[in-house]
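Before the break, one more example. Copy the sequence into your notebook; we will annotate it together after we see the structure.
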Amino acid sequence: MDTENTLKTPVLVLGATSLIGDHLLRRLVAEGFDPVAFSRRPPSEDACWIGGDLKDADLEERLPPAATVFSLSPIWLLPAVLPLLKARGMERLIAFSSTSRFTKTDSPDAGERAVALELASAEAAVETWCGEHGVAWTLLRPTLIYDEGHDENVSRIARLVKRFHVMPLAGAGEGLRQPVHAADLAAGALAAAHAPATRDRAYNLVGGETVTYRVMVDRVFEGLGKTPRSLPMPVWLFGLIMRLAKPFYPGATTAMGTRMGQDLTFDSGEAVRDFAWAPRAFHPRF
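Here is what the structure looks like once it is written out:
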């Protein structure tokens, strides 16, 4: 593929220290680009870096010129800065959202419902603004993202396994999952930026394998070199444990147990068709 003709420079990466950031910067450099990273702290990958936050009062003065913008920051921060990015030359936007905009809509947890609403509202605002101002946009919605040792999904399970040597499950853990690696998402974002068919479209990006929640946990055990030891229990008991654990694990919610039995699956067929999306199967290694 002739990258010079399909991705315009300069290239700006917002939220460059997110899970996907270093992977994306590395791929951009490997393809011969010289991306500018914008984030609160410097990325691990060697790149031109501008320190800052999308909520900074002097953001307009800090943003560099950019024709192509990859947004890895929370998408609800993006609508407010679109005019500033356009003023700096943005013609193409590839932004990450999340399938949580669908899966958490009816969550019993009010905070999760609020996140789903915020994601959906931000997506709509991005699409509308870009359409009205001539910016070609692509939205990418990953499922459960992991990056061994760095994420708060799969790696959180790994930390629990290492500490307690057993993983409690609400019910049988039969809900289906499609974990997707951050490195694959970086490759997908770059491929989407190159592909003309992705302009003004949104894609759900799933991992290369669909597994039950219990199998996902078993794979984490195996990735740690341990024999899988899951502990199924009634949903009500799991919920009680989560309430008791909340002071020690702030992210613990009873909704986590409810979702273990739910199928949170999506179809990436359009991404396969438009930019050859081909993520790895789920076999994490810690």
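The first strand starts at residue 11 and ends at 14. Confidence is low (pLDDT under 50) at residues 1-5. Try to locate both features in your own notes.
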